[in-house]
Amino acid sequence: xxxxxxxxxxxxxxxxxxxxxxxxxxxxxxxxxxxxxxxxxxxxxxxxxxxxxxxxxxxxxxxxxxxxxxxxxxxxxxxxxxxxxxxxxxxxxxxxxxxxxxxxxxxxxxxxxxxxxxxxxxxxxxxxxxxxxxxxxxxxxxxxxxxxxxxxxxxxxxxxxxxxxxxxxxxxxxxxxxxxxxxxxxxxxxxxxxxxxxxxxxxxxxxxxxxxxxxxxxxxxxxxxxxxxxxxxxxxxxxxxxxxxxxxxxxxxxxxxxxxxxxxxxxxxxxxxxxxxxxxxxxxxxxxxxxxxxxxxxxxxxxxxxxxxxxxxxxxxxxxxxxxxxxxxxxxxxxxxxxxxxxxxxxxxxxxxxxxxxxxxxxxxxxxx
Length: 369
Description:
This protein is an all-alpha fold. 69% of the residues lie in helices and 0% in strands.
């Protein structure tokens, strides 16, 4: 039988993209439906039409061409009902599965971009977890085969998956909403949750392996360790040899783990810590995570009544840029230290000073002053 040429499909897809960008949902739906039911549509155009249909279901009036240059960490605000959002995710997964089957690597990456475009806000806000969690796990599995082309997406997806599952387990929020089924089915959702702990460890280990190959991204180690500690609070005996090795061999990560563990341990060798901080700052282009670690350490020093350590840390914090968002927190730590020291030497009421300090701390953290 005569097979149609690809050009008409490309023209129709360009027309479809224009309709989506202008939010013309009726004609866009008709055009997408026409393409999806055409038995002669080439695989590449079929996959792109699935992604277009996802935009339509989510009523996302944006340029689909941006998917190929989607910036990590940016997403769209999707305001449709849960059932429509589920339908959008279903179309992404349909396109992803066809791309994987036909080994269309660039479209597997495009599927990741499309997924994050629609879902990142929901992931961050812990919304519709029962819809987005299993697809995210599938995305991670498929991205493994093309890590070279999408290392950023693979690492981001792995970290977000661990965070999402941990949230569900911590909140014991594993129930489904009444208005919509989880994706893909109740049974598969339940099976997925039964293996949640192992999925967390695998996701964190996958992310860490990728992070260690890119020294400039080593700040992400803090996220791996923080999520690992959350996992251990839920399952103290479920450990990762790979992450435990990191905690043993990396001074900063070991210290970070010590001060955030369920039972914090004492900090003694501050000279080694400061040397490790200097080395870390030289290795990375973005030191905010290192400064955030130092602030954690300073706050820990205040809690353990170690003024010497706190002063040493605050001295190192002078290297921080004046424009950094961490400056308010640094000033708060400085104020806590000064008030604590004055409370010890003043003949007034140290309890009242301490009380006022707590009020000030709370106010700043709430953004009221």
